[in-house]
Amino acid sequence: MGVEDRARLLHEYKARWKNAQFLSDLDYRAGPSISEQIQCSIDGSILCTRPFRNPSQLVIRSPPSALRSLEKRVWTLSFDDIDGANRMVATDVSQDLLVVAETPPGRQWDVCFRFLSLEDGGGQHPDAVSPITRQLPSNMQGEVRYALFVFYMMICGHHVAWCLARPRGMTDHLHYDLEVWNWRTGRLVWARELDSLTISTFIDPSHIVLVGKAYQSPKTLQIYNITIANNHIVHIPIKSTDPTLVCSMQLPPVLGIRPSHVFCDKLICKTHTPTMDSAFEPDPASALLTLRFHVDATPFILVVPSWMLRRELKKLQTLSSSRRRRHLSWNDWGSRCAIILPLGDRVNDVEAFGPRLALLPKLREGDPDSGRIVILDFSRSHEQVQYASPVAFELFRSMRFDRNIWTGLFSEETMQSTLPYFVTAGPDVSVPRRDGEQGARMASRVLMQPDGFTLMYHLDATLRLDTYYI
Q: Are 224 and 188 spatial neighbours (Cβ–Cβ below 8 Å)?
């Protein structure tokens, strides 16, 4: 494809996003007898796991793109060798990679991580050296109440990270190990021992971000450079000085709320992965870091463009060691680099992808099932806050500036932000209801993807996924 054709497609790509020109597709509907667990992968594909079937099943759906001539792909894999409840999976379609963590039969003290190929129907990935096994020390086996288990996994290029929980003797208390491995070489790259459960994500192949689920411990985003580690300082014990810690950044201070009423439950950063046959590639450095947290059961999203985060890190690195600070207060960085958004009562969850995040404010008063997607674009090409239309402005204002949501929780100063972004009003969405049925029926999740987004609904016991793509 020539340069002129690539430039034309890129221009059309930007125009369709700006004008919210989407095609729609009822991507999936599950029957009421199927128990589904849904997660959105690092590459934007959607995993539907059915752990209580025999055999247990994994269905992976890679979304289409009309503009990039990508067709929808669906892979279905079955696992009948062990109980599906003892399995966790992660995938990156762009690398043809499926990571499976499981407790093998008869080896209750082990967790085995296998690296499989989707195209090969779940066979060993050709680029992976071998499975990785983590084992409870032999002197602890039979002396503890729990075995090892995996809380979560994530993938970033050649790196795969997981959080392992291990028991503290015959008590209910747990230690946690966050480990980063190179899944191609089977080498441990970085590990951090934790005394409380954290959530984490990669912001690029060199940096990982942690935050405690309990808001008070810690009250910061902790950023680590995993490439600093070498064979001598690869595992960092609890409360020791960590040479891989770049800095900690204070989260927005909350007013008058006990710490036990504030908690964090999702930290993600998803970016575009280059593909061989694409006419162009969006900027992978423009991905959003988003943290979902709850204050007295009211959900909020903290949005931080990763390019702004890297700019702050670069500023710290240019300072001399005597002037360099490892801690930034919210006043040092919050209003310039982040924005706090109320999630509202229309959805339970939203996930960003690349530089974009979709929200779902109410469209019409008195119609609880109506809504209209609002897409925020935080690409670094934007120099100020802009709205594609008056409708986009009104819809976004109804959520962002609703003082009834955040008054008493955050100060005016904390809610202020100079972060530039572009707001587009997307398609109207609604969920049909049966005759005589009462109560609101809105999307439970809005999942942003490389070339669109997917709405996830629960209608009675039926799951429905609607995908919109450019």
A: no
448 phi and psi angles, rounded to 5 deg: -75, 145
Rounded alpha-carbon distances, angstroms, from residue 19 to 13, 66, 166, 183, 400: 10, 15, 50, 40, 21
Beta-bridged to residue 452, according to DSSP, are 449, 469
The model's pLDDT over 296-320, given as tens digits with 9 standing for 90+, comes to 888 899 999 998 888 888 888 776 5
Amino acid at 173: H
Q: Return the DSSP state at 435.
A: T
How far apart are the C-alpha atoms of 75 and 66, rounded to whole Å? 20
On whether the pTM is more than 0.85, the answer is: yes
Q: How far apart are CA 265 and CA 245, in angstroms?
A: 22
Confidence of residue 216 (pLDDT cuts 50, 70, 90): low
- Preceding amide of 218 cis, omega within 30: yes
Buried b (16+ CB within 10 A) or exposed e, 306-344: bbbbeebbeeeeeeeeeeeeeebebeebbbebbbbbbbb
